[in-house]
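Good day; I would like, with your permission, to put a structural problem before you. What I wish to show you is a protein chain and, alongside it, a tokenised description of its three-dimensional fold. Here, with my thanks, is the record as I have it:
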Amino acid sequence: MTLIRQPAVAGVFYPADEGGLRAQLADQVRAPLDWPIDAKAIIAPHAGYVYSGPIAGRAYAALAHRADRIRRVVLLGPAHRLGFRGIALPTAQAFATPLGTVPLDTTAIAGLLDLPGVMLLNPAFDNEHCLEVHLPFLQHVFHDFSLVPLIVGDAPPESVEAVLERLWGGPETLIVVSSDLSHYETYDRARQLDGATAKLIETHRHDRLESHFACGQRAIAGLLRRAAALDLRVTTLDLRNSGDTAGDRDRVVGYGAYAVEYAETARLPEPYRALLHAAVRQTLEQTARRVEIKVALDTFPAPLMAARRTFVTLRAPDGQLRGCAGSLEEGEPLIVNLLKSTIRSAAADPRFARVAVEEAAALGISISILSHQRALPVASEQDLIDSLRPDHDGLIIRDRGRDALFLPEVWETLPDPRAFVRQLKTKAGLPADHWSPTFQAWRFTTESF
């Protein structure tokens, strides 16, 4: 006989009748993204649907184009009802909602029980809403999938990451982290706190996340560790609170929807690229004229406000380099960082004179959005050379107070890995054959257009 866990919060957090639930889901999962984002993971809230449903719906709408490809969902959320150490799994074989039953991947669940801190603990799921409220969304969007549900108690991010590593799979597996953000702050204070939390999430700063920033902090931290290791980038899709949806603004709860995708294949849609290109062109010409930079930042869509680091490359009509510079400040909105890179490329590249008014309009513009940099643990120059992927990796090096960066595009002119590394050391002001025990290196990828 199949052991089915019945819903605990139907009729409280979401409608208990099938018709009403389907209607509410259709209303809340109706605004697709401007482009198909291939998210490997999402982070979405778990409050009552009238409060957080529109925000969660934004994350699920972004996945609708993959409805036929997702076959397994790994769903993690925080323990609200039971305090315990570790990560809990259920003994049930299916979870029920008013829309039907969701089968559990019992084989995958059994395969996790040898991990430290992972256990079968049914009481952790009793009256727990953080996973249940996601199930109707999943049933609404996906046609045929199994579930691995996990309640994260007092568990370190490393334990969560170990679970995710084992369950990661390929494009058939989706990771969903259930979390609200700030709790019971004033409206303005919540907006401030949640904005700061979003930047920590987008920049993979799991070490700075605290429980009062997000109730699912431990699960988020584990996901961010995995994202940093595999070069995934995070984009905030929606960031609001209960004062924006169905509550008053005296004491609100914050909600965020985030997509986590592989940086190497991530692509902004053409209309968004055009917006960035136009902003760079405007800033370039204003810089050449030495007038105040005026760009209406509040007109840019949320994905272009995600925390990113950028480079801008300028070329003359004959293809010759005319300026190349970046802004590596962490946590800045993409559009802000990009305009700083534009100004530096046009006016502060020491290899070239400042861009003149008469040439600005004719210069070609290339924009590079950098992924999260990943440390390369290398013990010698040969280790570094062997670890590089020509035509893919950008490289940052640092030693003796000097540093330098090559974008992946540099492989076009320096295709030999040894020459690539040695030229970068020369750029940093180090001898070409330099090496020391304190030498550091990081790789990254770019979205360039």
